[in-house]
Amino acid sequence: MQYLLLLFLSINIFASTLHLATSTNPSRLNPILATDSSSSEITGFLFNGLVKYDKDSSTIIGDLAKEFHYEDDKTLIFKLRENVSWHDGEKFTAKDVVFTYSVLISPKISSPYSASFRFVQSVEAIDEFTIKVKYKEPYFKALETWMMGILPEHILKDEENLMSSSFNTQPVGTGPYKLFQLEYSKNIILKANNDYFEGRPKIDEISFHVIADPMTRFLMLKSSALDIGGIEPMQYERQISKDFFDKFDIYEQISRSYTYLGFNLRLEKFKNPKIREALSLAIDRQEMVDILFFNHAKVCTGPFLPATKAFNKNVKAPIQNIKKAKQLLREAGYDEKNPFIFEIVTSNSSAIRPYAAQIIQHQLKKVGVVVNLRVMEWQAFLNMVVFPHKFDSVLLGWGLSPTPDPYMFWHSDSDKKGGFNLVGYKNKKMDKMIEESQSIIDREKLSLIWKEMFKMITDENPYLFLYIPNSITAINKNIKNVESSPSGIWHNYIEWEK
Predict the structure, then answer these.
(1) At residue 459, what are phi and psi to the nearest 5 degrees?
(2) Are 223 and 233 contained in the same domain?
(3) Which end of the chain, N or C, is surrounded by fewer C-beta atoms within 10 Å?
(4) pLDDT digits (tens, 9 = 90+) for 456-498
(5) How far apart are CA 400 and CA 450, in angstroms?
(6) Whether residue 267 is found in the same domain as residue 200
(7) Same-domain pairing of 438 and 483
(8) Residue 304: Cβ-neighbour burial (10 angstroms; 0-12, 13-18, 19+)
(9) Per the domain annotation, does 47 fall within a domain?
(10) Domain ranges, residue 451
(11) Secondary structure of the chain: what % helix, strand, coil (to 5)?
(12) What are phi and psi of 402, to 5 degrees?
């Protein structure tokens, strides 16, 4: 007995652990229900899609599918890998893909990701390892759709209510890591999958420390209690000493995300476009970037990211114009005696956004607008404010893929429970453009339409687009084989060693 205990201890002494932090408890560790950043990040280690982007984010390559091809412009064929097992040892087959599709289109679930499958006519298992997907019409994101994590049919086929299933806290995937421990508000531990089809990860376990406070996360990083962590520009410029750079490598690149102030367009107070334009003209976005980011961000000019085919370089950020903002407010019936009043709600999961809210409050005061601020814990913010649409305005951000899908954020049909059209934007012309664009395969034609959408959205001010931050990541030099790429640092993490 004593020998076995000593053996167990010796094994664990030499186990390598990657220490990370997450700002909130994950809500559901299920790829089709993971809508918050913590859930999405962790499920990424546990599940695979049929395809994924390569490290340059320029080409789609196989993941659970070993190869794929178009039979015609409405039919996709996937040949699946034959050496994939679920974490419980069961074989992964075409049945799991068909099952996942059936769950995504089921009225029993509420998932924003279901929208991506609305053009699918049928998903058929030709044999144990071949899938045929037929589309109703050509669809420009047909392949990207299948980056969605696949679910295990053998575990969930008899599940009555997936939304509240125990599977969401006890997930079984095909990914390089398995869930070992889920201890809310403390620790989430993943263990390496010995049977992973691309080879066992070289780091034995990943430990996510749930730390809501950004300053605590930063202090843990400085003390090397965390191996990897994001650094805010203020911290990078003013709060890091030379010895930190002896222990950590820094990777910095523009992020694929932006922060915005979104107005609840269902409310009468925001339906007047003059109000939204006045608020936009009262804000100095460059001043915000200068104060908060020390050159580690740029002003955001619209809904699609720079360096994509959807970006419209001809649309410039509004220049602050106090005089015109006041005039528009007067035309809308507001002045010093009757000020326009609204609330901004945001979360404390970001160190920056509460300060951004304060800057907006200060800038809008110059035109007589009264702004009340509310900062909430992330899960409460999502569940009590964002998804029930109980807000005047929200200060939030989106992370976007290299190929935008305007339907998810800007189509009227996405203004529903679980949808990502959080502000209730409705425009019949936009709906028609989105619907027509989705059957266009030619990326150059799509580019022109996306650029027109870009201008239309920015002209209407459903959001005030604020800034695109740089991603500054510190990685402990003890972590070997890290390679930076256009997609970031995580593309080869199963090769990392510690």
Answers:
(1) -65, -30
(2) yes
(3) N
(4) 999 999 999 999 999 999 999 999 999 988 888 999 999 999 9
(5) 14
(6) no
(7) no
(8) buried
(9) yes
(10) 257-470
(11) 35, 25, 40
(12) -60, -25
